[in-house]
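Bit of a strange request maybe. I'm writing a small parser for structure token strings and I need a real example to test against, not something I typed by hand. Could someone generate the tokens for this chain?
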Amino acid sequence: MIGGSPPSGGVSASAQVYDPVTDTWTDGPSLDTARTTLGAAAVGNVIYAYAGYNGDAYTPSSHFTSLEALTVSEAPPPTDQCATDLAAALEEIASLQEQVGELQAQLTSLTQQNASLSAQVVALTAENAQLQATANAVSTDLAAVQQDLARAFSNSGFQLPGATPVDQLNNLIRAILDLNLGRKQGVYKNLGGR
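Reply from user aminoacidic:
Good idea to test on real output. This should exercise your parser:
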């Protein structure tokens, strides 16, 4: 801010320099000629003041005979906080996008694993159903053998020994293996042997 008309009146020769970094005003070099409504231009740290009203007469801007050069101390370049904040925000966005990419890759991997596990569950469920059907059939057959033996020997309380169908089947097989040759021959023929 150069020259001007202070509130007390008259014309000023003072110059004020604003520092945007510290948001402060300091006194700069004064004009040789006090003036107001002047023109000014800056090149580097030199401010050129020209024309204006000096309190007695007005010098039009087309006359540069009143040109003065004021050299001010070199101010540090202002910090562009917006650019700094923008750069930080863009860096954070890039970091977040990278994290999103990693999470999407993990999600894709987990989705594939889930699909694979689901397929395994379906296969195991089918296998379990088949095994259950086989176990039910074995239990039904064991019950039929037990009932037939109980009826054949008039022993309604007869039960194949064993706590589970597997135990009962193993005991039945051992009983067949323990038969003498003649009885085994009967079983053999009943099973289609010649």
